[in-house]
Write a structure and sequence with these properties.
GO terms for molecular function: glycosyltransferase activity. This protein is an alpha/beta fold. It is built from eleven helices and 19 strands. It is about 30% helix and about 25% strand. Helix 4 packs antiparallel against helix 11 and helix 5 packs antiparallel against helix 11.
Length: about 475
């Protein structure tokens, strides 16, 4: 019963909000929860990625503090992982073999004329100018399928001097080819010989000469070889290390060394670190004074012919240099880039058989030459004096796959300007004073790269 004076409420107040949530509000809360979940997941991934990169950077800095900076890209490019490529003896050994008192041979090559014509064995030989070629010159050819040597005959083919090359006209020894073949033509057409012996009449045959097998034109683009002439005097190990390291920076990965070029330290460094810097090297005997003396021009001609024939199926460019000669490229970082630039002018560079280079003799003052600092160890790091005019001294970049145009008849030749490429040869300075001291700025970048090269750094450690 209500108290007097109080009015009863027709609609009593509810104890709680009886309004129910709408379906749209529930969906909104679900979207908010999904968005928060996505943000949390993205934040977690970002945190893990940041932590991974931080740890990787920390490990990299610790590695650099411990082992130093990595080598230049030129030191490690084209490395064949898992294979031993240094001192790769892919071609038969060579040295002078005496046939008669006036005739000796150096190397032999299987010449199948690319499947056209008659196969034959091309033997590189040298003979005295005063002597006549033997009329009854024969050979013994060895095949894998035959238990005994097969009798054959040989004929002489002249090896004329290369255009703008080293002239051998004044020498008392001439360079020639002996073209030999077995008397049984079926064996020459069906099999490839591996050794040949030369003989005159009924005399005893010579020592066997291994035959280098070159089959077809299998040229690999952008591959260059430097063949090093046999030295007349011994070189210090730093001279060999600087020569190989410098030309390796220019893009040369294969070196063929004739005679006693390598010192024990240089050979040990190449054997131990050749894989890391992708350098292949071969050593070829060259005992030129064994039977009769060979002049400098004859030695250069024999090495050039042997090098070109030896690499005509695997290399695109061949350059024959002495240890004291350096290829100078002022504008381009590599030899191949220079050749491409040369070919952009008139004709494609791949059609040019030989690029003639200008040589400049330079010398270093004795006070710089006898400095014992590591910085002064490199020839290229010194100021130099020019000793005479720039001339074409027979150095050229040869194209082995263009054999016919290089050595017979007219060929596509191209003269290279000094501003594009040249050869610098270091010689002893005359006694008179010089006024033309100069240091070519174009060498500075290469000197820095030689200093950073692995081969030179290892020489510093082991010297």
């Amino acid at each position: 019963m209500q108290e007097l004076g109080e009015k009863g409420s027709p609609h009593p107040l509810p104890l709680y909000d009886s309004k129910k949530p709408s379906p749209s509000a529930g969906r909104m809360r679900k979207y908010q929860q999904l968005a928060l979940t996505v943000i949390a997941a993205v934040s977690l991934v970002a945190f893990l990625f940041y932590k991974h990169e931080y740890e990787r950077l920390r490990y990299t800095l610790e590695y650099l503090d411990t082992f130093g900076e990595p080598p230049e890209p030129s030191d490690v490019e084209n490395i064949n992982c898992g294979s031993n490529i240094h001192n790769l003896l892919t071609t038969p050994p060579a040295d002078w073999v005496q046939v008669t008192s006036d005739l000796q041979v150096y190397s032999a090559f299987w010449d199948d004329q690319i499947g056209i014509g008659e196969p034959r064995i091309r033997v590189l030989a040298a003979a005295r100018v005063s002597s006549e070629a033997p009329q009854d010159l024969g050979c013994l050819v060895w095949f894998e399928s035959e238990n005994e040597a097969v009798v054959g005959s040989c004929k002489v083919e002249a090896a004329p001097d290369r255009s703008h090359g080293h002239s051998t006209k004044e020498a008392n020894v001439k360079v020639m080819f002996l073209l030999c073949a077995a008397d049984d033509p079926r064996l020459m057409l069906s099999q490839t010989p591996h050794q040949v012996q030369l003989k005159v009449g009924t005399e005893e045959p010579s020592q066997p000469v291994f035959i280098h097998q070159s089959e077809g034109l299998k040229t690999v683009a952008d591959r260059s070889t430097v063949c090093v002439l046999p030295p007349t005097i011994p070189f210090a190990s730093i001279r060999v290390v600087e020569f190989i390291a410098y030309h390796h920076i220019l893009g040369v990965h294969r070196f063929v060394l004739y005679g006693t070029v390598l010192t024990p330290l240089a050979r040990a460094l190449l054997d131990q670190y050749g894989d890391q810097i992708a350098i292949q090297y071969e050593e070829k005997l060259f005992s030129s004074g064994r039977h009769f003396h060979l002049s400098e021009s004859v030695v250069h001609r024999v090495v050039e012919l042997d090098c070109v024939y030896r690499h005509r199926d695997v290399q695109e460019n061949v350059l024959v240099l002495g240890v004291d000669q350096y290829l100078i490229l002022p504008d381009r970082p590599t030899l191949q880039a220079t050749l491409i630039t040369l070919g952009a002018a008139r004709r494609p560079y791949k059609d040019v058989a030989q690029f003639h280079l200008t040589s400049q003799q330079v010398c270093i003052d004795q006070q710089h030459k006898h400095s014992h600092s590591q910085e002064a160890a490199l020839l290229l790091a010194h100021p130099v004096h020019t000793t005479g005019p720039s001339v074409e001294a027979g150095v050229a970049i040869l194209r082995p796959h263009l054999m016919n145009s290089v050595f017979t008849g007219p060929s596509n030749n191209q003269h290279v300007s000094v501003s594009t490429a040249s050869v610098r040869q270091f010689v002893s300075c005359p006694t008179e004073p010089h006024q033309d001291t100069q240091h070519l700025p174009s060498n500075k970048k290469f000197v820095e790269k030689v200093h950073k090269s692995l081969l030179y750094r290892k020489w510093i450690i082991n010297n």
